[in-house]
Automatic annotation (TrEMBL), chain A:
Residues 445-486 are annotated as: Disordered. Residues 472-484 have a biased composition (Polar residues). Component of the origin recognition complex (ORC) that binds origins of replication. DNA-binding is ATP-dependent, however specific DNA sequences that define origins of replication have not been identified so far. ORC is required to assemble the pre-replication complex necessary to initiate DNA replication. This is Origin recognition complex subunit 1. One of its GO terms (molecular function) is chromatin binding. It is found in: Nucleus. Its main location: nucleus.
Automatic annotation (TrEMBL), chain B:
One of its GO terms (cellular component) is nuclear origin of replication recognition complex. GO terms for molecular function: ATP binding; ATP hydrolysis activity; DNA replication origin binding. It is found in: Nucleus. Transmembrane segments: none annotated. Component of the origin recognition complex (ORC) that binds origins of replication. It comes from the Eukaryota. One of its GO terms (biological process) is DNA replication initiation. Residues 254-498 form the Origin recognition complex subunit 4 C-terminal domain. Pfam families: AAA, ORC4_C. Keywords: DNA replication, DNA-binding, Nucleus. This is Origin recognition complex subunit 4. It comes from Eumeta variegata.
Length: 870, 518
């Protein structure tokens, strides 16, 4: 927000604001009573839930309460992702996706506040406020209820996929070139969209058709104005009131609201009456007002040793001073206090610079451009004589809170003296910075910020310390189930059929020996590695088939999903072999993310936008699991390149786990430009050893499986010696058990082994007729003699004649001892070529014959060629 | 060919019987013949003739499919056997058997694919969709937009059945090697095996192939998902170790088993002795027996065979018991005959394929005048299969001039050590021979050229595109046909055989042939 830190520009010089129809600006002074109330609303709004993320890009324009704001980072942070939908999805569909920026038809009306309306306040800060905007036909102002286009919604008239939201604030984010017109909203959910846990404590509530619930789940509340569709009306009622009359009037877009949803923990929540809640809040606010708002600060003790200096402090003559933290954030404070001091005490030029310290933990992070996090600015007037001290604190919580979406730094200016102006602390809401990899931390932050809230809003006596408004976003798991239940409504137009098979009429009799369990013996270390890596890196895993690559990744992901300390993430799973062409991968990914099927070109464009747009507020980090990576290789390698490129983007929050068989895939199959993006993190899955295989088999077998230990050992060792393939071992087990009558023993194992390890060629050769064997033997001896695999029919025939001469008469009535005639031999060879024991290449006069099996096999199998004379 | 050939004498008109329209016997026999001819021509018969050979495998496949159907298990197997070893017959008979025992219609979906037809994923998909498209929730007129959509939909269909409440799927992949050519992607197989492996919808995937090395064609990941269950349908596998094993004994048993008539018909006929015997139907019955498997002990023909042949038991009642007795006695005596056994042994030397053997048996000529099969019928049929040389027959059909050209060319090939010759070279050799022998008729060059072209048309000589001549051919215009190089595509043995049996061959030519170089 470049306007901060500058002197107030003259009224006429706002041409640089582009197409905005600027009506007025507000100059406004730090603290006032109204601000507190509205601050509470904003903060509350941050917790407000949303079903679908609409805000694509964000910018904050707080009404009279935001002092410092860094909007450019914000958009990428509030990453709460709902099922099926994505930020800006509607946007893409509405406008041309390729057109950066989209329609620019938002018209914002700004009301002039400040001097005119509040003459008592010193004009020490300049904030753009927007009270009203016009977007297409929609004119709405702060406090209005609107319907917001959902990601799932189609552009049809149906309001089914639209969410109800209340506009809390409107602002403009100039840094966000694409979508500068933002709004803060509070979300209202429909009862049918609530996950089951929300209604756990209040199952018996009968909801009306047009009922919505104020949703305080931690959804992203920062949305683009352009997603607003139409104004609606939400009537807040008591829970026992009967809304029949209102609903019977059948007004369009009339909703009622009786409850508000409070999320207690990740999967817990309860409904509260919306009006009562408001009353409570009001009383709390009133009681809060008198108290010192230092409560949040009290949490952070500030050891003197940790105090460091801010990098740069500029003090201007105009009695404004700004603190520049490494150039990343400019804080402009019109220091009324300072002025007072100067006026009172030092008529001459100010000598002492206000002491500004930065209080940070010892391992304090560098205030890099992107690294500035939760900074607590504390402005303190030390005494009457001293200049006020601005303490910039890295809060302790910041360690956990590093990766949060919006971060508030509270600047507490607490003048000892009853200052005229700054009676209340100035709240900074600092724009978020993001580090998409460290998704783990996010949840911690959320809890933390919630605590800050509670402490900020409630008096300390009332403080309930551990009510964690843990962010609860519908996990992909619940979203799946929800998708199933709610799909009828959502998918009316997609006409997607639920794929099922025909139901059988007779139930199956289950006598399976193999138990379905998810334990993965022998893969503990790999599991740990995955759990570790999954949060951060691109990981590629290479090994022979059947070594549990996919299973390990899947169960690791499952584990991560239920792990309470982790934030929600979206799992996208594609299998290179389960799509027809590599490019269908785009379609599949997009479908799993949004539930919509588009053509691959379109999907590619949309995904590209989705993952690479910096300001895009995607809600959840995505884990993309690419199974059978090598199947995605094309000649151009565009698919792999794209995926890897997206994963490289910070904004994408995309973690790619690739599973491949080929060890050297990045080195051989991939061109350099793809290979360099794949990254070096490679996790190798060794084939299972026999002990591991044994453990696997024992864990997988049910009690019904009756197999003795020796047999198990034999299976494990046999398989480990050949391939180490767990599938193979299990297959062998089942086959053994099928053979066994009682307890499966070694004999059954060897039978199963004989079935599986086929000596197909030997058996095939053995079953041939004597003449066919003769020909094969002749070919084999010819091959042995010449050393080349290829011979001709005439040479084979002469070799056969030699063999026959030794063997004697082929059959009793044979007129003379001789090899088959050449036409007979050709027929025989062709018959052998059908079963691929030989290959024949036609050539005039003398076809070429190639032996397709090893000559040793042939010799072994044709030992008993002799047909003795009778 | 052989079937059409044998049909001729049996046809109603040809044997001089009145083709009355309302004669049920003739109609029935016609139908019988037709159905048998088609079923044999396609090589697909409902029953396996020699259950002893494949009994164990039948039990294997039976267990496999039954477990899939009743227990909802998933399996995959590969049936490997030579052509004509009864792979499809085995599967069909198992399915048929299960059809009688289980509620297959409501519990299973059988999807049959052939690697020859469905070699591409797209074609296979369409076929699967068509065959499984009694899938629930699928609107009949639903048109899949893209192939990929179709594919993913089908996959998700297959992955829904984890609760085992859906029908069992039985995929029969005929010509399995067609699905795993190295060039094409094996995603179909991958997905099918993956489903069988991941305990989703109960599915049994049975591949049928004649290539023993088919497993090597599979990709690693596909191979890993395959259960490695092989069922080999190689004949007489059990007898390798038996020193007294003689394959022709088995053939003799098959001979008796297939050609004897059931006794039950005789009993039934005893109740209605007034029926006339139509001898022409003998062969019909004989063929039916070849096609069908019945238990000679109880003598009852399976109903399915009758249905397939579109006859009823009453149609069989036309046989006289005396005839059946004679016929069976004749067959048994044939089975003891040394000549027949020698012929069978000869056949066994060349092939162990049962399908070929059956085709031989059907060749036997039976008519009203010759009610029984005799020894020469069988021996000739076997000789034809074993020693029939098309090349010799072709050479014997040539004119003297053409044969002379072949001989001249053979001599030239001998001299030039296998190098190809052009017309001028052949002509030069021929004129040398013709001039040396005054008796030989002088023919103009154009006639010789014509004869040469005729040889080319018969593929006795084939043009050679030698690498040395490619340049001249591509550089200049079309080469003159007199100078086009040809190679002789007849082996010396064949020519020798043909010269021996050539009728009315001039002595000069045979002399010229034997004294090779002029």
């Amino acid at each position: 927000m470049g306007v901060l830190g500058q002197t107030l520009p003259p009224q006429g010089s706002r041409g640089n604001l582009g197409p905005w129809c600027l009506i007025s600006r507000l100059l406004f002074v730090g603290a006032n009573n109204r601000r507190r109330g509205s601050a509470g609303r904003i903060l509350g709004a941050r917790r407000a839930g949303m079903r679908t993320h609409n805000g694509m890009l964000s910018y904050v324009c707080a009404v009279c309460r935001l002092v410092c704001y860094r909007p450019s980072k914000r958009g990428t942070e509030d990453g709460v992702r709902d099922y099926g939908g994505w930020a800006g999805d509607t946007w893409y569909r509405r406008g041309a996706p390729s057109k950066a920026g989209g329609p620019r038809s938002v018209r914002v009306c700004r009301s002039l506040k400040g001097k005119g309306q509040r003459p008592g306040l010193a004009a020490n800060r300049l904030v753009d406020t927007v009270r009203q905007f016009q977007f297409k036909d929609l004119i709405a102002s702060v406090g209005d209820f609107v319907l917001v286009a959902n990601a799932d919604a189609d552009s049809s008239k149906s309001t089914a996929g639209w969410d109800v939201a209340q506009i809390l604030a409107l602002y403009e984010n100039l840094d966000n070139k694409r979508d500068p017109y933002r709004a803060k909203v509070r979300w209202y959910s429909r009862p049918c969209d609530l996950p089951a846990w929300c209604l756990f404590y209040s199952k018996n509530i009968a909801f009306y058709d047009h009922e919505v619930i104020e949703d305080h789940r931690p959804f992203d509340i920062d949305v683009s104005i352009e997603t607003f569709r139409i104004k609606c009306n939400v009537l807040k009622m008591y829970t026992d009131s009967n809304p029949k009359q209102i609903l019977d009037q059948n007004i369009n877009f009339q909703f009622i609201c009786r409850y508000s949803l409070k999320a207690i923990s990740k999967r817990k929540g309860h409904l509260e009456p919306v009006l009562e809640e408001e009353r409570q809040l009001q009383t709390l606010n009133i009681s809060n007002k008198r108290r010192s708002t230092l409560s949040p600060l009290s949490r952070f003790s500030t050891p003197e040793s940790l105090i460091k200096e801010v990098s740069k402090i500029s003090l201007s003559e105009e009695k404004n001073w700004s603190v520049i933290k490494n150039g990343s954030t400019k804080i402009l404070l019109k220091k009324a206090i300072l002025k007072d001091h100067n006026d009172k005490q030092s008529p001459k030029a100010q000598k002492s610079v206000p002491k500004i310290v930065i209080d940070s933990p010892k391992n304090g992070r560098k205030l890099t451009k992107t690294g500035i996090r939760n900074i607590l600015l504390e402005l303190k007037e030390n005494s009457e004589d001293e200049l006020p001290t601005l303490i910039i604190k890295h809060s302790e919580a910041e360690k956990e809170a590093l990766y949060e979406t919006s971060i508030h730094s509270n600047i507490e200016t607490t003048p000892r003296r009853s200052s005229r102006v700054l009676k209340n602390p100035v709240k900074y809401i600092e724009s978020p910075t993001k580090t998409p990899e460290k998704v783990v931390r996010k949840r911690n932050y959320n809890e933390n910020s919630d605590e800050e809230f509670t402490s900020a809003q409630t008096p300390r006596t009332l403080k309930t310390p551990k009510i964690m408004r843990t962010p609860r976003t519908p996990s992909s798991q619940t979203s799946v189930s929800r998708r199933v239940t709610g799909s009828a409504r959502k998918r009316l137009n997609t006409s997607l059929l639920t794929p099922t098979l025909q139901k059988r009429s007779h139930p199956v009799e289950d006598n399976g020996w193999i138990r379905d369990n998810n334990s993965l013996p022998g893969r503990e270390t790999q599991m740990d590695t995955i759990l570790y890596f999954i949060k951060t890196r691109l990981l590629e895993r290479t090994r022979v088939p059947g070594t549990g690559k996919t299973a390990t990744v899947c169960s690791a992901l499952e584990q991560l999903k239920i792990e309470p300390d982790l934030p929600e993430f979206q799992l996208v799973q594609i299998n290179g072999m389960k799509i027809l062409s590599p490019r269908q991968a785009y379609v599949e990914i997009y479908k799993q993310l949004t539930g919509k099927s588009v053509s691959w070109k379109q999907a590619c464009i949309l995904l590209e936008k989705l993952f690479t747009t910096k300001a895009n507020t995607r809600k959840l980090p995505t884990v993309l699991l690419v199974d059978e990576l090598d199947a995605l290789c094309t000649r151009k390698q565009d698919v792999l390149y794209d995926i890897m490129e997206w994963a490289r983007h910070d904004a994408a929050k995309l973690t790619v786990l690739a599973v491949a068989n080929a060890m050297d895939l990045p080195d051989t199959a991939l061109p350099a430009r793809v290979a360099s993006r794949v990254g070096l993190t490679r996790l190798t899955f060794q084939p299972y050893t026999h002990t591991e295989l044994k453990r696997i088999v024992t864990t997988k077998l049910t009690g019904a499986a009756n197999i003795n230990a020796d047999a198990l050992e034999l299976i494990a060792r046999k398989v480990a010696a050949v391939s180490g393939d767990a599938r193979r071992a299990l297959e062998l087990c089942t086959r053994t058990l099928e053979h066994a009558s009682g307890t499966a023993g070694l004999q059954d194992v060897s039978r199963a082994l004989a079935e599986a390890t086929c000596s197909a060629t030997v058996r095939a050769v053995k079953s041939k007729s004597p003449a066919e064997k003769l020909m094969l033997r002749a070919v084999a001896s010819e091959v042995d003699r010449t050393g080349s695999e290829e011979t001709t029919l005439s040479r084979v025939l002469s070799a056969a004649a030699a063999i026959v001469a030794l063997d004697g008469r082929p059959y009793r009535v044979a007129t003379h001892v001789r090899a088959p005639t050449s036409s007979q031999a050709l027929v025989i060879c062709q018959r052998l070529a059908v079963s691929r024991l030989l290959l024949i290449k036609p050539r005039p006069g003398d076809p070429r014959i190639i032996l397709n099996v090893s000559s040793d096999d042939v010799h072994y199998a044709t030992k008993q060629i002799n047909i003795k004379d009778i | 060919m052989s079937i059409l050939h044998t049909l001729a004498p049996v046809r109603v008109g040809s044997v001089g019987l009145k083709p009355t329209k309302n004669s049920p016997e003739s109609e029935a026999s016609d139908r019988l013949l037709y159905s048998q001819a088609t079923s044999l021509a396609t090589g697909r018969t409902t029953y396996i003739a020699s259950p002893s050979a494949a009994g164990r495998h039948v039990q294997n496949v039976y267990d496999l499919i039954k477990k899939t159907v009743t227990h909802g298990e998933s399996h995959s197997a590969l049936i490997i056997g030579d052509r004509g070893s009864g792979k499809s017959t085995l599967i069909n008979s198992v399915l048929h058997q299960l059809n009688g025992e289980l509620d297959m219609e409501n519990d299973t979906l059988v999807v049959k694919l052939s690697g020859v037809v469905h070699h591409e994923d797209s074609v296979a998909l369409k076929s699967i969709t068509a065959q499984v498209m009694q899938l629930e929730n699928v609107v009949g007129d639903r048109v899949f937009g893209t192939l990929a959509e179709n594919f993913s939909f089908l996959l998700s269909c297959l992955q829904t059945g984890s609760d085992k409440s859906c029908k069992s799927l039985i995929f029969i992949l005929d010509e399995f090697d067609g699905f795993c050519h190295p060039g094409i992607s094996q995603s179909l197989l991958y997905n099918l095996f993956d489903v069988t492996h991941s305990k989703k919808a109960p599915m049994c995937v049975i591949g049928v192939t004649c290539r023993p090395d088919v497993i090597e064609l599979l990709e690693k990941r596909v191979k890993s998902r395959f259960s490695h269950m092989h069922i080999f349908l190689y004949p007489n596998e059990e007898n390798y170790t038996d020193p007294n094993y003689k394959p022709y004994i088995i053939f003799r048993d098959i001979f008796v088993e297939l050609l004897t008539l059931p006794e039950t018909i005789k009993k039934e006929l005893a109740r209605s002795p007034k029926k006339k015997i139509k001898i022409k139907n003998i062969e019909a019955i004989e063929k039916m027996n070849i096609g069908g498997d019945y238990n000679p002990r109880n003598g009852l023909l399976p109903e399915e065979v009758l249905i397939k042949c579109r006859i009823t038991m009453s149609d069989l009642e036309m046989f006289d018991s005396k005839f059946i007795k004679n016929w069976n006695a004749n067959i048994l005596s044939l089975a003891q005959n040394h000549n027949v056994l020698d012929a069978l042994e000869k056949l066994c030397y060349y092939t162990t394929n049962e399908q070929i053997y059956r085709d031989i048996l059907i060749v036997s000529k039976v008519s009203t005048n010759k009610p029984n099969i005799d020894i020469t019928d069988i021996c000739n049929a076997i000789d034809k299969v074993v020693a029939y040389d098309n090349g010799v027959q072709q050479l014997k059909s040539l004119s003297i001039l053409e044969l002379s050209l072949v001989i001249a060319m053979k001599h030239g090939v001998e001299i030039f050590n296998g190098d190809p010759m052009n017309f001028e070279m052949v002509l030069q050799r021929y004129t040398t021979f013709a001039n040396a022998n005054s008796s030989a008729q002088k023919v103009p060059k154009a006639v010789v050229l014509k004869a040469f072209e005729h040889l080319q048309a018969l593929k006795i000589i084939v043009p050679v595109k030698n690498s040395d001549f490619i340049q001249s051919e591509s550089a200049g215009s079309k080469m003159q046909k007199e100078y086009q190089l040809y190679a002789l595509d007849v082996s010396p043995d064949t020519l020798e055989e043909a010269m021996k049996s050539f009728k009315s061959l001039p002595t000069e030519i045979s002399h010229w042939y034997s004294n090779s170089i002029v």
